[in-house]
Amino acid sequence: MALLSFEYAFVLFPFLVVAYNVALVIYRLLFSPLAKFPGPKLAAATLWYQYYYDVVQRGRYTWKIAELHAQYGTLPALSNYHSSTHSGLQLGPILRISPYELHINDPEYYDELYVGSSTRRTLKYEWAVRGFGPTTNAFATISHELHRTRRGAVAPFFSKTLVQQLEPSVVAMIQKLVSRLEKLKGTGSIINLIHMYPCLTSDISKQFWNHFTPDLPDLSCNVS
Q: Which of 53, 94, 110, 164 is deepest in the core (most CB within 10 A)?
């Protein structure tokens, strides 16, 4: 009897897996709150679409998203969309790029999405913050209240007064960068901006965390 039960479960399990995934795809395509937004159906159904461009195509999904915006165009204002500041707003190029995500290519929507706690307390997207390490650090904290507490511990270091004190050091670092670029002028050298700006940011951060130490070496990385 036990053997028959095991064989029955062994046969039934694949069927249940298939049925679950079929039901999940149907939900994502037809009943999800994001189902009304335009975008590739495959992207709406599964994360494997994003996986292909991010992993197989080595990080090309950003460019693919730009192509999809051009392909799907703009989205008219939804009939159930209400806003105290943007009544009847044309939502613009809003695109569904995964079962859980929308991509918005409209700077005018910034003030709708990023609001203060008095308007809406927003939780960070758990799936997205996984790339920033454990949720015990402030940047990857999901809860609004907990993030506020953790941010408060370092807030004095980013006060307006302290940042103004840092301004001469920032200007000095930028002048160093400009001087380096001027030396390369006319040499035919190719400058990789992807390396240049992180290096500048790194050196400015060193100045900050070393309490304005003036004798740090020049740019941490080569700009060419």
A: 94
